[in-house]
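DM from R.C. (forwarded with permission)

"hey, sorry to bug you on a friday — could you get me a structure for this? deadline for the figure draft is monday and I only need the backbone to look sensible"
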Amino acid sequence: MLKSTSKTKVDVSEQVSVTPDAIFGFEDEAGAQRLFVLEVTNGRDTGRTTRQIKNNLVAIYKGKVSEKYNIKKTPLLLVAFEHEAHRDGVKKAVMQEGFATTFQGLEKYLFFAMQQQASHDWARNWETIEGQPAAIF
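My reply, with the result:
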């Protein structure tokens, strides 16, 4: 039997890997390379989403995503939520655990949005963990 492996799977170590919903990149008008890791959450499992964020940030911090795609740029982690209460709970959990700030300021690479809003204006409907509006490019 063939084993199927996701194209977005990123090995962090021999025992740990992450499989975000999407990883994509492009070159902007100025010629700068951009790289994004996307998690789309459906449901309300704060613990699961918080673990996904943590594991993705570790992969980003260790340079594993950039290495896999041979792009020498720190990717942005985008997390799109179905429910506002879930988004708010995850933000609180991430802040309480402190791992976003532990990894040398990785919080500046973490952005949150509501799925419906992001689908209408992909570049501008994101916010920081502190709730400040942020354009991702």
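R.C.: lifesaver. The beta strands are 10-11, 17-18, 22-27, 33-41, 76-81, 110-114, 126-127, 133-134.
me: no worries. The chain is about 35% helix and 25% strand.
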